[in-house]
């Protein structure tokens, strides 16, 4: 019986959003940062372009390290312009403070002497991180569209996007002048965290229905908002209990 073990229920304590979660997270500030980005003092241009490739194509540390080794072998340079490793390059970016990219930590539960922490960033700043991507910013739809096409001589409405729907039109009609409707998509799925598949996690992602389907299906059209906690039992009795 699991009653012999520590209680596994989560506390119902609520966490209020602090004022810092709203700092520099408005639409105006998103556009400002997009067209006047914060200056990152890169070691050199090659370092910057290498890390841009790593992030753009979601390359693993091992793939990046293989490229670094290849480059250093044939470049004939006394000092390599690239980071010593892909991990070091990512740590450089982590140490570059950009408020809307920062994650917060909230202790949620201590179970079997292990403290579980919820890592997340505010919803508003996660949305801003999407708006900072130029391809998304350029394709973002902020108003209802009445899309129609003629099929077999008959004009038909098209509901290919949520902003083509009656719901969008109705909700938009209740907004004040200058306000826009953002439709959020939140989802999570288990994913492996290493090449051997022995470690897994449940990242939560955010996207927007304001982004057209063809753009929303691209990797850059979703933003990481946090990680769901996964409790791990230290013994088989707890792991196999009905309450775990």
Automatic annotation (TrEMBL):
Matching InterPro entries, A to Z? Answer: Plavaka
Taxonomic superkingdom: Eukaryota
Name of the protein: Uncharacterized protein
Q: Which organism is it from?
A: Gigaspora rosea
């Amino acid at each position: 019986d699991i009653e012999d073990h520590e209680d596994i229920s989560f506390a119902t304590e609520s966490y209020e959003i602090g004022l810092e979660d709203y700092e520099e997270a408005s639409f105006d500030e998103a556009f400002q940062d997009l067209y006047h980005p914060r200056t990152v003092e890169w070691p050199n241009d090659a370092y910057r372009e290498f890390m841009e490739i790593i992030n753009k194509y979601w390359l693993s540390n091992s793939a990046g390290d293989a490229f670094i080794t290849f480059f250093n072998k044939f470049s004939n340079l006394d000092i390599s312009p690239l980071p010593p490793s892909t991990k070091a390059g990512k740590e450089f970016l982590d140490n570059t403070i950009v408020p809307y990219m920062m994650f917060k930590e909230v202790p949620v539960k201590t179970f079997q002497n292990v403290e579980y922490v919820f890592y997340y960033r505010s919803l508003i700043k996660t949305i801003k991180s999407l708006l900072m991507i130029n391809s998304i910013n350029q394709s973002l739809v902020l108003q209802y569209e009445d899309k129609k096409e003629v099929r077999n001589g008959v004009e038909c409405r098209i509901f290919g996007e949520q902003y083509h729907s009656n719901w969008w039109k109705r909700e938009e009609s209740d907004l004040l002048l200058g306000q826009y409707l953002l439709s959020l998509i939140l989802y999570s799925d288990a994913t492996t965290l290493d090449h051997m598949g022995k470690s897994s996690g449940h990242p939560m992602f955010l996207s927007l229905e304001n982004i057209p389907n063809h753009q929303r299906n691209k990797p850059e059209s979703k933003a990481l908002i946090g990680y769901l906690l996964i409790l791990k039992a230290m013994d088989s009795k707890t792991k196999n209990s009905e309450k775990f």
